[in-house]
Amino acid sequence: MDLKQNIMAVKEKIAAAAVRAGRDPAQITLCAATKVQTDDTIRAAIEAGLEVCGENRVQELCAHLEADAYAGAREVHFIGHLQTNKVNKVVGRVDLIQSVDSLRLLEAIEKQAEKLGIVQDILLEVNIAGELSKGGVAPEDVQDLAQAAVSMPHVRLRGLMAIPPVAHGPGANTQYFVKMRRLFVDTKDKIADNKNDMNCLSMGMSGDFEEAVAQGATLVRVGTALFGPRPPRPEQA
Ligand SMILES: *Cc1c(COP(=O)(O)O)cnc(C)c1O
After folding, report:
1. C-alpha 115 to ligand 1 mean position (Å)
2. Among residues 104, 125, 139, 165, which one has the fewest Cβ atoms lying within 10 Å of its Cβ?
3. Coil, helix or strand for 117?
4. Ligand 1 binding pocket mutation candidate from 79, 160, 233 (most atoms within 8 A of CB)
5. Rounded to whole angstroms, how far apart are CA atoms 194 and 95?
6. Tell me: the pLDDT tens digits for 69-90?
């Protein structure tokens, strides 16, 4: 596996999908989903031109921060399920928390950010396909949670994120990407005092990031297409 070649290939596909959709490729950020990758792999990826890392477990985030594995990256994001009792390990240590899915979590983030005297950038995670097995706020509850977020002085709402079902074949998730795009535009319109901050629509993974770009994603989260298939987590092996 050639990391540098994979990164270039994914970037080229993003750019081509953007151009096909009449969009400026510079509007789309590639966030590498670095779960289960080692410190050295993350360092090599950054060296090879990767700019944004997304971590989905608190424990892995802390270990990589401790080892300074993200040195040279422009941004580090948290993209996984975040438990309220672990916010102090994440708030202020990442540039963007993509996965805020409850008022309780939002309030805990606000409290910790206030304590640190910072403003934490966040996205709201939407359960766009209504999957019972997944986290994320229901589409009809997004407006209320967004209002709550913009009323908090130490939280800055930057947009929405979604993890649709595993894509089985081309076009399978287009409907969800279209719905997310509408919800994003709607939410932005209804929150007048926050319009300029709302510039991030995070959707699309290895199997469908080009479709997501075609439907308006401004950030795609890609793991397998960059790093190859993931080995099972040690604790699951
Ligand atoms: C792992 C992960 C991805 C990337 O998945 P791939 O299919 O490997 O590209 C994207 N988003 C989240 C939240 C993830 O945990």
Report:
1. 31
2. 104
3. coil
4. 79
5. 18
6. 999 999 999 999 999 999 999 9
